[in-house]
Amino acid sequence: MPEFQNDPAQAAWKQGVMRGEIKLEEIDTQALTDRYGKLAINVAPVKAAAE
Amino acid sequence: MKFGIFYELQLPRPWVAGDELRLYQNALSQMELADRLGYDHAWVVEHHFLEEYSHSPSPESFLAAASQRTQKIRLGHGILQLTTNHPARVAERVAVLDLLSNGRCEFGMGESASITELTPFGRDMETKKEVFEEAVAAIFPMFKDGGSEHHGKYFDIPLRNVVPKPVQKPHPPLWMACSQLPTIERAGRHGFGALGFQFVSADAAHAWVHAYYNAMTKRLTKLADYEINPNMALVSFFMCAKTDEEARARADGATFFQFALRFYGASQNRQRPAPGAVNMWDEYNKWKRDNPQAQEAALRGGLIGSPETIRRKLKRFQSSHIDQVILLNQAGKNSHEHICESLELFGRE
């Protein structure tokens, strides 16, 4: 999907961020630290899960 | 936005003669196809002893083969383990791949997240971060002209000139594996590209992009003298087909990736069963039958569907300013034919 690969807006955004011209909000990521992400599934095999 | 493809080289049981040969040859063919279609990166992991989950202990060999069958696609170590390899061997492998590929090497670094891998190499979960950071400090002087030496807690390397040197100067682009989401912030702080080997929603991606770039621009702490690589990549399940239903059916076993990752990675010091004691594919299928809703939820978040469905999902990732989506083609028992059709359909749309 070349329309995504050719993305000058992303390049300009990144350049702005790295130059300090675009300030990014500090977002609390504490709620987003689950090792397996929002799509977490409890998948430990029963037989193998002996701690 | 760049598109990468990603290889754990998964081989769920049951195994029959010739499986590993087919796995490797098919993956090389897929890389050739991806190169012709204009995909940007191909990433290959390094893992040891992780039955079914990853049969890829020697990414430098695999990528060297790929370098002779491709023209443009960037060839990424995603990653090399700095805990289980000597720093000089890492620098040598990176330089040789860069030479063989005419400057297409990407240098991803990681620690390993499993005692299954670390223990045989004399490493442990408690010190692996220290070993990683010391290895970084040892490796980068090796890419410069002339000799270097390193005398530290884990590595004692006398003055030697590590040859050859990479084509890309001062070195290939640097990345760090982020198997745990908070490591994305750490990658930013050290100035490395972030290889986010996790599955996140577009909303979560937005938050992690902010954390990554804020760490890099406000709290940069380099571990050695190297060039920073501001780039954030996230992995996603991937299967593109003519209809959503067909794509969903073809990707049905893809969540084996998470299942096996959890088996090896969860609970840091858990002793795993002896090799061959667990048929992970069978266990996975039992889990899938018992948890249909969780299976559906996991697949729903991935880039699985018709071109139009995937396009719609990608727009959300694009708005979060992710630099690269790494498409997880080869997961579970996704077939070679379906992977190739998916790559073609997506690449030509």
Output the keywords:
heterodimer, A: 51 residues, mainly alpha, 2 helices, flat, B: 349 residues, alpha/beta, eight-stranded parallel beta barrel, two-stranded antiparallel ribbon, 17% strand
Q: What is the CA-atom radius of gyration of chain A, in angstroms? A: 19 Å
Q: Radius of gyration of chain B from the CA trace?
A: 20 Å
Largest sheet of chain A: none
SSE run of chain A = HH
| E-strand count of chain A | 0
Mean of all residue-level pLDDT scores of chain B: 94
Helix content of chain B: 40-55%
Oligomer: heterodimer
- State the end-to-end CA separation of chain A: 45 Å
Strands side by side in the biggest sheet of chain B: 1-2-3-4-7-8-9-11
**Shape assignment of chain B:** globular
**Residue-averaged pLDDT of chain A:** 74
Shape of chain A: flat
**Helix/strand order of chain B, N-terminal first:** EHEHEHEHHEEEHEHEHHHHEHEH
Structural class of chain A: mainly alpha
Structural class of the helix and strand makeup of chain B?
A: alpha/beta
Question: What percentage of amino acids of chain A are in beta strands?
Answer: under 5%
The chain pair with the largest interface is: A-B, 36 and 60 residues
Low-confidence runs of at least 5 consecutive residues of chain B: none
Q: Assess the beta-strand content of chain B as a share of residues.
A: 15-25%
